[in-house]
Amino acid sequence: MSSRADANLDTALSTVTEEIGRTNTKASILLAFTGAVLAGLASLADDGLSLPTRVFGSLAVLALGVAAVFLLLVVRPRLGGTDRASFPYWARLNEDEIRASMNSDTRAAQVKVLSRIAVWKYIGLRRAVDLILTALALLDLAAICAAL
C-alpha cells in the first residue's frame, strides 16, 4: 500500500473516531438539558392548569421522553463486533488468534464500521433535536394558553 493510502486511512480512522466522540458529547449535553426540562415540568404538573395548557404540556413531555430515548440509544455501546476489525471481535479471540489477525491491515474495515456507527449516532441526534425543538414549541403554546 502506498504511503499516501496509509496516511489517508490513518486520517479517516482518526476523523471517524473523533466524530463518534462528538456525538457522545452532544448527546450527553442534550440528555442533561432534557432531564432538567422534564424535572421542571414535573414540578408544574399539579398547578391547576387549563385543559389546553395540560394537553400541550403533555405532548411536550411525550416529545421530550422520546427524545431522551433517542439520546440514550446514541450513547448506548455497540458491542456486536462481527466485523473482524473491532475490539468486541478481538475480545472473543485467544492470544494466538489476535496475533494472527494483526498481520492484516484492518483500517479500511474499521473506517467502514466506525462510519456506520457515526452515521447512526448522528441520525439519532438529529431526531432527538427535532423532538426537543417540537417540545419547546409545544411548551410555548402551553405558556400562551396558561397566560390567557
Automatic annotation (TrEMBL):
Subcellular location: Cell membrane
Segments traversing the membrane: 27-44, 56-75
Coiled-coil parts of chain: none
InterPro entries assigned to the protein according to its UniProt record, in alphabetical order: PycTM_dom (IPR043760)
Superkingdom of origin: Bacteria
Every Pycsar effector protein domain range: 9-143
Keywords in alphabetical order: Antiviral defense, Cell membrane, Membrane, Nucleotide-binding, Transmembrane, Transmembrane helix
Protein name as annotated: DUF5706 domain-containing protein
